[in-house]
Design a protein that fits this description.
It is built from 9 helices and 4 strands, in the order αββααβααβαααα. By secondary structure, it is mainly alpha-helical. The protein has a two-stranded antiparallel sheet. A two-stranded parallel ribbon has the order 3-4. A hairpin with a 5-residue loop joins strand 1 and strand 2. It is globular. The termini are far apart.
């Protein structure tokens, strides 16, 4: 009996989806490239170093949404960040700036669905054992954690700078959600995340600002509590 390798079927899905999406969105990518060239001097494509599967560093492509500068400052972009020019705000809100990552998918560095890749410095300094589990698969364009970050960014604390608030309030929950999704990964689940991502982007573009908690959140919060309890117990034993 002929069996299909799930990794091979996922790769076929990724290639077909990415190739089709690049063809469909090519006019938007072209218009965006012209707009960036007109609105902000500098390169059209921003090449960002990201941690991929197994923590290996790769170059992730984005349409540049910030003014070109020798030093980019914080790796986290907060609300109202002055580095983002007006057209860049639109590209970020609609996620058009992420479309070049379809090329990363074709290259085999990313999947359509998978944990969103982080800056290597964040991985090195802030990923614990739970976070490292999210590096067991290829990073993706869409994920449950990414949708949560987009819709619940307002929950980040305002008492500190955006990067500190992200690392403290949002990243741990996002990573737990990514691990929950990885453990239940399936083609149907991936399609649901793709649809949820598209609907969320459309709703935000239409002006919606309040969203319900995602279905993965309760299990992610439980997993996060268990992990924090286990880590605390380990710390106590080590100090004894």
């Amino acid at each position: 009996m002929l069996t299909v390798n799930p990794f091979m079927s996922r790769r076929i899905f990724d290639v077909l989806f990415a190739a089709t999406a690049l063809l469909v969105f090519s006019p938007i990518l072209l218009l965006s490239a012209v707009g960036v060239r007109v609105c902000s001097p500098g390169p059209i494509i921003y090449r960002a170093k990201r941690a991929g599967r197994g923590g290996r560093t790769f170059v992730m492509y984005k349409i540049r949404t910030m003014h070109a500068a020798p030093q980019q400052g914080s790796v986290i972009t907060g609300h109202g960040d002055v580095r983002v020019y007006p057209l860049g705000k639109l590209l970020r809100a609609t996620k058009i700036d992420e479309l070049p990552q379809l090329w990363n998918v074709l290259r085999g560095e990313m999947s359509i669905v998978g944990p969103r890749p982080e800056d290597p410095s964040i991985v090195e300094q802030h990923y614990d054992a739970l976070g490292m589990q999210s590096l067991e698969v290829k990073p993706g364009l869409a994920s449950a954690g990414s949708v949560y970050g987009t819709t619940h960014m307002h929950l980040m604390g305002t008492d500190v700078d955006p990067e500190t608030a992200y690392l403290r309030d949002l990243l741990p929950v996002k990573l737990a959600m990514e691990v929950v999704s990885i453990r239940k990964q399936s083609l149907i689940g991936d399609l649901r995340i793709i649809v949820r991502t598209i609907l969320t982007i459309a709703q935000i573009a239409a002006g919606r600002r309040s969203f319900d908690d995602p279905p993965e959140l309760p299990e992610a919060e439980r997993l996060l509590r268990e992990h924090q309890h286990s880590r605390a117990s380990t710390d106590i034993r080590s100090a004894a």
